[in-house]
Structures are given as C-alpha cells and as structure tokens.
Amino acid sequence: MKSLVIQEMQEYYYQIQIPNITVGSNERQSNESTTALSSSTKTSNYKIAFPIGLFIAGALGNILALIVLARARKEHQRSIFYRLVGGLAGTDIIGILATSPVAISVYFNDLHWEGGQRLCDYFSFLMIFSGFATVFIVSAMALERYLAICHPYFYNTRAYPMLAFWILLAIWIISFVIATFPLFGFGHNTIQHPGNWCFFDSHSTDLIDQIFAYFYAVIGLAMVLFTIICNLLAMISLMHSTGTLQTQNNYLMRMCSTHSTNRKRREQSLQMLLLLFGIVIIFAVCWAPLMIRVIINQTRWLPINKEADLLGIRLACFNQVLDPWVYILFRKEIVMRVLDCVRKHIYCRSCRQDSETNITQPQLTHL
Predict the structure, then answer these.
(1) Which CATH number describes the domain made up of 52-330?
(2) How far apart are CA 247 and CA 267, in angstroms?
(3) CA–CA separation, 79 vs 179, rounded Å?
(4) C-alpha span between 144 and 276 (Å, rounded)
(5) Is 129 left (phi over 0), alpha (psi -120 to 50) or beta?
(6) Which of 354 and 60 is assigned the larger pLDDT?
(7) What is the pLDDT of residues 108-119, one digit of tens each?
(8) Residue 109: CA atoms inside 13 Å, Cβ hemisphere, count?
(9) Model confidence pLDDT, tens digit, residues 71-127
(10) CB of 338 within 8 A of CB of 275?
(11) Which Gene Ontology cellular component annotation is one that this UniProt entry carries (predicted)?
C-alpha cells in the first residue's frame, strides 16, 4: 500500500515537472529562432541595400549628366566628344533602368527567381549589350581625343558633328548582335550567385561556351588597353604642345600669357582629356576584374569563387554609376576655375622669383 502511494506521488510529480521542462525548452527554441530571424533580416536588408543604392545613384547621376549636357548643347553642338559622352550617359541609364528593378524584385522575393529562362535571357542580354556598348563608346572617345590632339589636320578634315551619331549607331548595333549570341546557342545564359542576376555561363566546359567566354574577356581587355594607350599618347602630345616637356620658364610664359591665340584651345583639349582620363581610370578599374574573372574561370587557374564573380559584376555595374559623376565634376566650368587658380599661383611664384633675382643681381655686381 505504501509503495503504491509513493508510485502515485512520483507520477504526479513527473506530470507537474515535464510541462515546465517542455515550456522552458520551447522558450529557448523560440528565442534562438527569433535571434536567427533577426540576424537573417539584418543580412537581407544589408544585401538589398546595394542594388537599391546602385539604382538610385546611377539613375540620378546619369539624369543629371544628361541635363548638364543639354544645358550646354549650344557650346558642345559641334563637338563629337560631348555627343559621345551623351551617348555613354544614355547607354548607362538604359542599362540601369532595365536591369536593376529585376535584381531588386528578386531580393524582395527571398532570392527566388520566378521569371524562368526568358527573364534570365532578357537580363543577360541587357547586361552584355550595355557592357559592350560602354566599352566601345569609351574606346571611341579615347580614339577621338587621340586623333584631335595628335593628328589635328586629319581630324579637322574628316570630322563632322553627325559622325558621332553614326559611331553610336554602329556601336549599339554591334553590341546588340554580340548580346544575342547566347540566345542562338553561342554560349548560354544562367542564373548567377546569389540568385538575383543572370549572365552567360563563364564556368562551362562546353567548347562553344568557352569560345564565347574567351571572346567576351579578350575583347573587353583589348578595349581597356586600347583606351589607356590612346589616352597616354594624347596626354603626352598635349604636354609637348603646351611646353610641359620643355624648359620650365618657357612653360610658364605659355601658360601665363593672356595673348596666346592657342591657349583657349589647349585648355579645352586639356579639360576634355582630364574628363576622359577620369572615365578611363574608372572604366579600367571597374571592367578589368570581370574580364580577368572570366579568364580565370575558363583556365581553372584558381578554384571556383562565386563571391569573386559577384564582386566582378558589381564593379562593372558600379562603372555605370560613376561615369556621370566624373563628367559632372570635370565639366568645363570647374576645370577652368581650377586652371585659373593654378595659373595665378604659378604666375605669382614666377613674379616672386623674378623680383628676388632682381634684388640679388645688383648686390652681386656691387661685390
């Protein structure tokens, strides 16, 4: 009888304790899941902030660049260079407006791609088209400045304002054709890590896919090298024409003289070259890593690194954001003000040196 009472008391005790243990365990699991959810939410918010920020900065910058160009159209209406700048801004804004909303919507959908292969082909087509168009336009700008500065007679006898339109049209057609290659089996498009964008498959071992990947990377790197060479040659030629590579006194006289008939033209060429130099530096830094990643993926020099691929495409997209801001910062009014300040500083320095020389010369003669 006593043992029966003890057994009933133990069962009653366990019935009381087990729910408490269960409740405590559930509370801990709930707290852990809440913490994990909060952490994942913060990570998701951080990741989605990049495409949203890229979209806003790129759209705003390119719209402002087009407005600045439109306001100065009377001054630049005969300039091939600035028409190419306008074409670059237009190409960049089309690429941003057509692709960024897709990437943002996929982020909001927890990185689930709902559009299927057709949306993937659309996204990849626009990425390849806008990428190659940007590459070719920057290369055309570099070639235009090289010819204008290094071969002025050839340039002036053959250049006319409508030439910029035909150059842009040819670039857009060529870029359009290249972007359609994966749609017809020369390469193929696939969803890329982390799942919110599409591009051609740079990891494929299929021969046709490899040929297209090498074609894309080699053309891109060749254009980067071409623009750098053209820019350096134009800069060296401009430095020669202004006397920078000659004696310092001769340079000061050329820069400080207000009666030089070619000073204004040299300043305009320098302003365009500084603008192009900024665009080329950003262009090389942003595009070269993507081309290099494609070659690394094909040659298998390094293990597959999807995060590095993602960084490469993000840098390439960032180029479309930075281009218009470079133009806004390097527009003629700002560059001319900087040159005026530099000229005044150099002139004051030269006058000070001349006055010191005039003071010391009589003393030496007296001695």
Answers:
(1) 1.20.1070.10
(2) 19
(3) 30
(4) 10
(5) alpha
(6) 60
(7) 888 889 889 999
(8) 15
(9) 877 666 668 988 998 999 999 999 999 999 999 999 888 888 988 999 999 999 999
(10) no
(11) plasma membrane
Q: How long a stretch of residues is the chain? A: 367
CA quadruple 316, 334, 85, 264: dihedral positive or negative?
Answer: negative
Stretch 342-356: mean pLDDT: 60
Residues 6+ apart with CB under 8 A from 308: 293
- Overall pTM surpassing 0.90 (yes/no): no
Q: What does the pLDDT read at residue 275?
A: 81
